[in-house]
């Protein structure tokens, strides 16, 4: 059950303000998979770890013994504002043995036991945790009689507003994403055509799978990974806006290319979509593309601090509906229709709160979003264009530089 008073406090204060409330704050799990934990440990460790802020304000990191020295050395560069969180002192599970019995030989269980022992040693009777806390930690802490409160804004608000260094990392990630996007769109646009209208490149049939593999190699050469895959899709698969695409690519039809890799040096993500047509697009594709580009501009024009994600989305929908397209969310259609919201936050994860969608809340200065309106149909194919946008006091700052057209020759 959500503790309402705690959530109201978290919504108006930073994560480090919990000490004045008498709570300890707990993050735990795998730092290489949990961005909230990664920011507090300082390294993307693959073994179980925990971060505790005590009611006194002191912070503790619990990591595997062989990771202690490396964790102590982890931190922000001198003068960096990438992560405005004190990392805290470093311990290992053996530093907090259970009151009864021994530490488990299972690393995750041992870390959960150590967290519980640490809290008991410090006289903590109540902790707050975020949405990512694994059940094993919650079970051990609760079994020791310590109350756990779920705070739905913990680990969310501090990541929504980006520092200058974080924005620089996102800018670089998007720049590299666009470098690869340009090569992919040019490769598709310049391919040959066989007798069936399928694209051929160097005597090989050009398929969605082949293009994704090509993208993966290009990103790997640049120190990026495609851990979530990529989309290279045309009709009929592009009627489903998240279908990765499969099979041969054809001339004359729109092909959606959506790339969202991670920069392994910073762990920040790029996310860019362009639509490419080999040959000459038909009139409906041109009409769809014009409506999508216009709706994107209308949504971006709303992206000022104090305005809402709901207003951004509604501006996009008004433009698309004025062009004659209808919403059919959750229902694939033959003719082009509106299938999804306008965009999402981005940072250490590709999809971060908040959504640019119906009911979306207030925008803050230095939040970063993708803006990606699209139209999709089984017969018409799909068109989507996506850029990364920073909300600033002076209006939207678009981090993309690539053109948005259909012709890439």
Automatic annotation (TrEMBL):
Gene Ontology biological process terms in this record: proteolysis
Protein origin, superkingdom: Bacteria
Record EC number: 3.5.3.3
GO molecular function: creatinase activity; metal ion binding; metallopeptidase activity
Swiss-Prot/TrEMBL keywords: Hydrolase, Metal-binding, Metalloprotease, Protease
Record Pfam families: Peptidase_M24
Renumbered residue ranges of the record's region Disordered: 1-20
Keyword Oxidoreductase tagged: no
Database matches in InterPro entries: Creatinase/aminopeptidase-like, Pept_M24, Peptidase_M24B, Peptidase_M24B_aminopep-P_CS
Domain Peptidase M24: 169-393
Biased amino acid composition, Low complexity: 9-20
Family, similarity comment: Belongs to the peptidase M24B family.
Official protein name in the record: Peptidase M24
Record organism: Rhodopirellula sallentina SM41
């Amino acid at each position: 059950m959500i503790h309402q008073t705690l959530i109201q406090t978290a919504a108006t204060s930073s994560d480090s303000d919990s000490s004045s409330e008498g709570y300890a704050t707990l993050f735990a799990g795998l730092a290489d998979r949990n961005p909230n934990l990664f920011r507090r440990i300082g390294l993307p460790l693959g073994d179980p770890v925990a971060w505790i802020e005590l009611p006194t304000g002191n912070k503790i990191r619990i990591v595997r013994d062989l990771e202690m020295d490396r964790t102590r050395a982890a931190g922000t560069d001198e003068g960096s504002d990438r992560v405005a969180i004190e990392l805290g002192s470093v311990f290992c599970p053996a530093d907090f043995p259970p009151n009864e019995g021994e530490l488990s030989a299972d690393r995750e269980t041992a870390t959960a036991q150590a967290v519980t022992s640490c809290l008991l040693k410090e006289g903590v009777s109540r902790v707050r945790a975020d949405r990512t806390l694994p059940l094993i930690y919650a079970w051990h802490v609760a079994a020791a009689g310590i109350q756990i409160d779920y705070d739905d804004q913990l680990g969310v608000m501090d990541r929504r507003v980006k520092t200058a260094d974080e924005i620089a990392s996102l800018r670089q990630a998007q720049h590299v994403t666009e470098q690869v996007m340009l090569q992919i769109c040019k490769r598709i646009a310049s391919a040959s055509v066989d007798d069936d209208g399928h694209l051929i490149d160097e005597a090989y049939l050009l398929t969605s799978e082949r293009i994704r593999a090509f993208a993966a190699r290009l990103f790997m050469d640049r120190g990026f990974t495609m851990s979530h895959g990529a989309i290279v899709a045309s009709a009929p698969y592009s009627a489903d806006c998240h279908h990765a695409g499969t099979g041969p690519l054809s001339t004359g039809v729109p092909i959606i290319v959506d790339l969202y890799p991670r920069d392994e040096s910073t762990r920040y993500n790029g996310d860019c979509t362009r639509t490419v047509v080999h040959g000459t697009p038909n009139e409906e594709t041109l009409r769809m593309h014009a409506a999508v580009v216009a709706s994107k501009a209308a949504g971006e024009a709303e992206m000022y601090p104090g305005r809402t994600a709901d207003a951004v989305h509604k501006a996009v929908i008004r433009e698309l509906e004025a062009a004659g397209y209808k919403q059919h969310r959750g229902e694939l259609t033959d003719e082009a229709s509106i299938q999804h919201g306008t965009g999402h936050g981005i940072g250490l994860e590709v999809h971060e709160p908040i959504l640019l969608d119906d009911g979306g809340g207030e925008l803050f200065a230095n939040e970063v979003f993708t803006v990606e309106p699209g139209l999709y149909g089984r017969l018409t194919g799909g068109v989507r264009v996506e850029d990364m946008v920073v909300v600033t006091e002076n209006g939207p700052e678009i981090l993309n530089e690539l053109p948005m057209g259909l012709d890439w020759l």
